[in-house]
Amino acid sequence: MAWQSSFTIDLDLPDIRIISTSLAREQDLIIEVESTLTTVACDQCGRLISDFDGYDPAHKLRYLSPGGRILYVSFRPKRFRCPYCENHPVTLQQLKRITS
Backbone phi, then psi, for 96, in 5-degree steps? Predict the structure, then answer.
């Protein structure tokens, strides 16, 4: 019988959904997440935009859990194209942590 454990991790990341979890090297946990937001502020004009333009390559954030397990949060930032600016620039969504 395989040994299983469970634990709770507060990622302190708002507006995300967990897509999958997997183990790497038997101890490292990889959590793949995606943003649930459907808009972003344009980097140039500041207006709220919602014209989805695909995903950027995956980024990985590394955490060390209190128990010593290495945890990676993997996400692909959403890209949005601005319909208001003349050159229709693309803005990437940022994964933001809540700070107290």
Answer: -110, 140
CA distances from 26 to 22, 29, 35, 55, 95 (A): 10, 8, 27, 29, 27
Angle at 56 between CA 39 and CA 74, to 5 degrees: 95
Give residue limits of the domains in the chain.
16-92
User: How, if at all, do strands 28-35 and 16-24 pair?
Assistant: antiparallel
CB 70 within 8 A of CB 60: no
pTM for this model (two decimals): 0.73
Q: Which residues of the chain have pLDDT under 50?
A: 1-3, 98-100
What b/e string do you get for 23-62 counting C-beta neighbours within 10 Å, with b at 16 or more?
eeeeeebebbbbbeeeebebeeeeeebeeeeeeeeeeeee
User: What does the alpha-carbon distance between residue 74 and residue 77 come to, in Å, rounded to a whole number?
Assistant: 10
Pull the structure tokens for residue 93: 């969504």
